[in-house]
From TrEMBL:
Coiled coil: none annotated. This is Isomerase.
């Protein structure tokens, strides 16, 4: 916890520094949720195809961040985190020249049955 999954359109690949985004995202999550940075995990899914609206604008691309966090955070904290992550996405995709970036963020609680394990050799 927290777990982030970032879906992004293939055409953003050259303009979206995923590692830099993840590192800033982790620092942001630590600040807002008061958690240890070692708990933060981010996975990226490159979308080979994405369609926005009627699909007539090839410049339209997608970035969607799903952030699953431990239960018990207030709606205000979740809202603050959502806004901050959206701003981070906007900053990290600002260099996507000629593209119309449709960015979204969804912050949700992990399920009651969530568990984890960290194995060391």
């Amino acid at each position: 916890m927290p777990h982030a999954v970032v879906d992004y359109s293939d055409s953003l690949t050259g303009a979206f520094d995923r590692r830099a985004f993840a590192l800033e995202l982790h620092a942001l999550v630590v600040e807002i949720l008061d958690t240890a940075i070692g708990n933060c995990k981010t996975r990226f899914h490159r979308l080979e195809e994405s369609v926005v609206g009627e699909g007539t604008d090839a410049r339209a691309v997608v970035v969607h961040v799903e952030l699953a966090i431990a239960r018990g955070r207030t709606p205000q904290t979740k809202s603050r985190l959502t806004r901050a992550v959206l701003e981070l996405v906007e900053r990290h995709t600002a260099k996507a020249a000629g593209l119309e970036v449709h960015a979204s963020v969804d912050v949700r609680d992990l399920g009651e049955a969530y568990t984890k394990s960290v194995a060391t050799p």
